[in-house]
Amino acid sequence: MSFDLVVRSRRTVTPEGVRPAAVAVRGEKIAALYDHAAPLDAAEDIDLRDLALLPGLVDTHVHVNEPGREHWEGFASATRAAAAGGVTTIVDMPLNSLPPTVDVAALEAKLRVAAGQCQVDVAFWGGAVPGNVKELAPLLERGVCGFKCFMSPSGVEEFPPLGLSEARQALEEIAGLGGVMVVHAEDPALLGEPSGPTYREFLDSRPEQAERSAVEQVVRLAGETGARVHVLHVSSASCLDVLEQARARGVAVTAETCPHYLTLAAEEVPEGETAYKCCPPIRPEANRDLLWDGLGRGVLSCVVSDHSPSPAALKVPDFAAAWGGVASLQLGLRAVWTEASRRGYGLADVARWMSANPAALAGISGKGGIEPGNDADLVAFDTAASSPVDAAALHHRNPVTAYHGRTLKGAVLTTWLRGRPVDGEPCGRLLLEGP
């Protein structure tokens, strides 16, 4: 039996754990796993020895912004950065493009502009906004993974938030369709305007209670409508008990957090360095420790980037006025590995949080694990490497990131997409999955 590619590693990260293995690839798929030293007939046989072999990461929270704001980030630059960071599938958020992805016509416009640009596979969220309930079924039928909504202002006027009655109506529709709603959960009634330009004033304007209150509302609506919901970018550990208790009652709710909430802390944010500004905000170190506990216990199931880039001109040194969003698509794996390894977590944990669980959330078939039948999306990762981040050297369109100058562990050496090394050619596919 012959194969197109065999990749061997003494540290192959499989769904059953980390073990020595030879991953045999035929065409675009993983055909079988063998013992590390098994003699195999292959056109190409690569032995990584002690370098780790991970499944390609699945990042379900990426703001690409094209068409319309491609000077913030576009499909070519975003997917190039993703591949460099070990991410082989991204799911694009609907709100920052013009038009936003709130109907099939807007999705088709996005598909046309993305075609032929992507170096990794790309799937799409649709948007739920006031007045578009009738557009949800056609969008799902066309293949979006589910729907994104805001409970508070999104930052762009083209994508307004849902009030509670509108959210209920959308969730009732989504429940009937068998879809999922992913929710930016901050209660607008508890948000304020920063009283000045400092980070402390910005943080005080978006208190933990605003997140907790919104999560409580989401959980209640999910329980009443039977809809499946997912809480995006949890930054406050005060939400964890609400989520855990809801799951215990059988409510179909999951939640994610992001590398910046797990690796950065409010005490470390330099004044005027608005690359750190995001919504909800980066909170104090003690809160960060509790988020890790929630992740370890499975209350938080996914770690995804919320890559929300902007031109440097929008990151003015005033936390009240600057655009909110952390650019980190290329750096998520290294950032999480740096902190996870320090806290005693292993590669299997990271692969579950950053590959298997996000793939399951978005319903993307053939992704998320090194196992026969899946796409041969693989990452050679040097866990022992260490280097400082240079924002100007990243593939993001704009050289702005909160990680600039920070030393991170790990290095992505090779990324394979469906058995092919990502080498700068746009070989990614547009994934239209649906429910």
UniProtKB/TrEMBL annotation:
<dbReference type="InterPro" id="IPR032466">
    <property type="entry name" value="Metal_Hydrolase"/>
</dbReference>
<dbReference type="InterPro" id="IPR006680">
    <property type="entry name" value="Amidohydro-rel"/>
</dbReference>
<comment type="pathway">
    <text>Nitrogen metabolism; (S)-allantoin degradation; allantoate from (S)-allantoin: step 1/1.</text>
</comment>
<dbReference type="GO" id="GO:0008270">
    <property type="term" value="F:zinc ion binding"/>
</dbReference>
<feature type="domain" description="Amidohydrolase-related">
    <location>
        <begin position="53"/>
        <end position="422"/>
    </location>
</feature>
<dbReference type="InterPro" id="IPR011059">
    <property type="entry name" value="Metal-dep_hydrolase_composite"/>
</dbReference>
<dbReference type="GO" id="GO:0006145">
    <property type="term" value="P:purine nucleobase catabolic process"/>
</dbReference>
<protein>
    <recommendedName>
        <fullName>allantoinase</fullName>
        <ecNumber>3.5.2.5</ecNumber>
    </recommendedName>
</protein>
<dbReference type="GO" id="GO:0050897">
    <property type="term" value="F:cobalt ion binding"/>
</dbReference>
<comment type="similarity">
    <text>Belongs to the metallo-dependent hydrolases superfamily. Allantoinase family.</text>
</comment>
<dbReference type="GO" id="GO:0004038">
    <property type="term" value="F:allantoinase activity"/>
</dbReference>
<dbReference type="GO" id="GO:0000256">
    <property type="term" value="P:allantoin catabolic process"/>
</dbReference>
<keyword id="KW-0862">Zinc</keyword>
<keyword id="KW-0659">Purine metabolism</keyword>
<keyword id="KW-0378">Hydrolase</keyword>
<keyword id="KW-0479">Metal-binding</keyword>
<comment type="subunit">
    <text>Homotetramer.</text>
</comment>
<dbReference type="InterPro" id="IPR050138">
    <property type="entry name" value="DHOase/Allantoinase_Hydrolase"/>
</dbReference>
<dbReference type="Pfam" id="PF01979">
    <property type="entry name" value="Amidohydro_1"/>
</dbReference>
<dbReference type="GO" id="GO:0005737">
    <property type="term" value="C:cytoplasm"/>
</dbReference>
<dbReference type="InterPro" id="IPR017593">
    <property type="entry name" value="Allantoinase"/>
</dbReference>
